[in-house]
Fold this protein.
Amino acid sequence: MRIASRFFRSSGNEKPAVASGGLPGPMRANHVEKDTTIMTNTPLFSKPKTAAESQLEKWIEQGRSGVFTVTTMLTPELARLLLANNPNNRPAQWGANRGTRSVTAYAAMMARGEWMLNGSTIVVASTGELNDGQHRCEAVIIADTAVPVQIVFGVERHTRSTLDQGIARTGGGVLAMEGVKDANNWLALLLHGPLPPGPQPSRS
């Protein structure tokens, strides 16, 4: 009776030894690890802010703490920045047939150098949205010039419904403020017919 050998020859079906890393030694070279890299859309080079963008951001941020007014030059660039945050506003009045308050009329005055700083403000809400001033902003862009303006920052957004509710000044009203008697009658004659003989318009 033969005594069985303590050792057996290899049959060629043994599993490869597992290395300490958890992968079979002979298969390690063929292992493909999962790529967990997260791709982002962050640009390699961000566009630097212009001086106008930085200044407007500072004003809007200051307006979150309270109401204040600045006197500055309204440039086409600043006008575009203000209009970029002008949601749900009434349609702008563009045509010359809209009278002296149209974008076209404003732009013509600006191009001729007739625009004056009269205390009428552009209004920006505490949210950064434009409450009043879209016609002036559009006109500055068309005229491609800069005009002096005052801008109020920090008012509540809902107050825009109270703007432009007063009685518009007429030509006769302007003459009356200059002291002309019977201003409306004189304006009608000036616009629609020759001046009558006799005394000329006088100041009160």
